[in-house]
Design a protein that fits this description.
The complex is a heterodimer of chains A (265) and B (265). Chain A is mostly helical and 265 residues long. Chain A is 76% helix and 0% strand. Classes of the chains: A mainly alpha (265), B mainly alpha (265). The interface between A and B is medium-sized, with 33 and 35 residues.
Chain lengths: 265, 265
């Protein structure tokens, strides 16, 4: 209990310090509004040109709400890799290591605290914009309950991906390139711009075998098409990928620690 | 007049050589950032080609047109910020009072500042634009020549836009986040066909977010091999650059030294 409470305190502190920058987060919402407007125009044109009411069960309204949720997940994702880069480059990681806590868990707690604030601000705005563009979503209550259940594991999974990329700072000069590719893979292969069900079938099976869809598309899909059976499967796959990535992170982290050289001081 | 122009071209060439050497001091970081941006652009393009082939987004638009749109935008952005990388950092430089060192140079201030740094990832954008245009569009020499000229026009527009938005720091204090969002908004609109947006929104794309001179006229010029559309692109870009110079010079009169002590090699 004592062990968990210190990580809880880190998460709360991180959330509080991010609340101080609510204005900055708010200014990002202009961009969110632009993106949702563009998506709205894009999908309106697609529906009008195809002359259909829905694609694979998705109406225009559902697609806009789906995109609002995926954008919230992606825009609220804090970038943990520059922090690890800096810790490694400046040697600050040695200070972190002598503290009575695990460095990855410290970063996880700090990350979740920050992300909670960012997500809350972003979802309030994205919800308002989507409401303005297409009206309220169907199944709002059940959808919200499902997304709230799936979201924490999605955020932990996303964090583990970034942490793994960040740990390569022990071997590379700079991990910003790797972080960029990881971020784009999460966006494109995770279904940020379009539900995975709308991808060509050959791609769908490939993408469902990767973790990205369980970070982005899975929770957003539950919001527009809530389904308890599907939610159970989503949570199961999220836990599976968290275990896999946690093991990989633990292995890479143990190798990385052996590369630290201290010279007094 | 001509002598002055060639003089500035020589200055740009010298800065380019110097910046390239500086980047190559950290060769691995430079290559990884450029390569990551190239892969990032490829992922976006793959997604958009898939979207346009799967759904009837805009009548008459095929994969080749999407590739042209992405090639022009990426190459233009890449050239602009590969040569004039400091344009992206302008709001921060102004807000932190770092113009002092630049004010000592014996030429016009603006060219020195914007030429002062190369953006490594922009090199990847530039490479992507030309490679994709040649590989996916298979242009004849007239199209390739026009494409090259249009990338210069788009580069000019991006440069002007970065200077214009960055100059807001003279008036608003730190306008870094605002600039970033404004720039992302322009890029977002520039990567979709302008035909998606109707009359009410279109005027925005000719003024506040001048994406019409990136995804509108240049694409029409290349599709129809139309010199008049190419001319409109250049006129749009020149207007944005002229406005940027006026706003920068006006804002400069409001600049207050930060009394920061620094050295430039």
């Amino acid at each position: 209990m004592n062990c968990l409470s210190k990580y809880w305190a880190i998460a709360v502190t991180s959330a509080k310090s991010n609340l101080a920058y609510a204005g900055e987060i708010g200014s990002r919402l202009c961009f969110l509004g632009i993106i949702l407007f563009i998506f709205m125009q894009l999908w309106k044109a697609i529906f009008a040109n195809a002359n259909v009411a829905q694609f694979q069960g998705y109406t225009l309204e559902e697609i806009i709400w789906y995109l609002a949720i995926t954008e919230c997940i992606m825009l609220s994702s804090p970038r943990v890799t520059p922090l690890i880069d800096e810790d490694v480059r400046t040697g600050a990681i040695t200070v972190q290591l002598v503290r009575p806590m695990s460095y990855p868990l410290y970063r996880l707690a700090s990350n979740l605290g920050e992300q909670a604030v960012r997500f809350a601000v972003t979802v309030a705005s994205a919800g308002s914009i989507a409401l303005l563009l297409v009206g309220p979503p169907s199944n709002f209550g059940l959808g919200l309950a499902c997304v709230l259940l799936a979201l924490p594991l999605a955020l932990v999974l996303d964090f583990l991906g970034y942490l793994l990329v960040g740990l390569f700072a022990f071997w590379c000069e700079d991990t910003s390139g790797l972080a960029l590719i990881y971020s784009r893979l999460t966006m494109v292969a995770g279904g940020m711009l379009m539900p995975l069900d709308l991808f060509p079938e050959a791609f769908q099976s490939l993408l469902k075998g990767l973790p990205f869809g369980y970070i982005v598309s899975g929770p957003a899909r539950q919001f527009v098409h809530p389904d308890p059976t599907g939610l159970g499967a989503l949570l199961g796959f999220q836990i599976l990928w968290i275990v896999v990535l946690a093991l990989v992170v633990a292995f890479v982290y143990s190798k990385a620690l052996k590369r630290i050289a201290l010279n007094g001081g | 007049m001509w002598n002055k122009f060639t003089n500035y071209l020589e200055l740009a060439a010298s800065y380019f050589r110097f910046n390239t050497k500086a980047q190559l001091e950290y060769r691995t970081a430079f290559i990884s950032q450029a390569l990551a941006m190239f892969v990032n652009d490829c992922l976006w393009l793959a997604y958009f080609v898939m979207l346009f082939e799967r759904f009837p987004v805009v009548k008459g638009w095929e994969a080749v047109d999407v590739a042209t749109l992405w090639a022009v935008t990426a190459a233009g952005f890449g050239i602009a910020h590969c040569l004039f990388g400091n344009a992206l950092a302008l709001p921060r430089i102004i807000a932190r009072g770092e113009l002092d060192a630049w004010l000592l140079y014996p030429r016009a201030l603006l060219p020195h500042i914007v030429l002062g740094r190369m953006n490594a990832s922009a090199f990847g954008d530039c490479l992507f634009g030309f490679v994709i245009y040649v590989v996916m569009v298979h242009p004849d020499w007239q199209h390739l020549l026009l494409f090259t000229l249009l990338t210069l026009s788009v580069a000019l527009l991006f440069l002007g836009f970065s200077v214009l938005s960055g100059s807001l720091s003279f008036y608003l204090g730190n306008a870094d986040t605002l600039c970033e969002n404004w720039r992302h908004g322009l890029i977002a609109f520039s990567t979709y066909p302008i035909e998606l947006f109707d009359g009410k929104c279109k005027w925005l794309l000719y003024t506040v977010l001048p994406a019409a001179y990136i995804s509108g006229f240049p694409i029409d010029a290349l599709r129809k091999l139309s010199l008049i559309d190419a001319l409109y692109s250049f006129l749009g870009a020149l207007s944005v650059v002229s406005l940027a110079i006026v706003v920068f010079n006006h804002g400069l009169k409001r600049y207050e030294s930060g009394n920061m002590v620094g050295m430039r090699g």
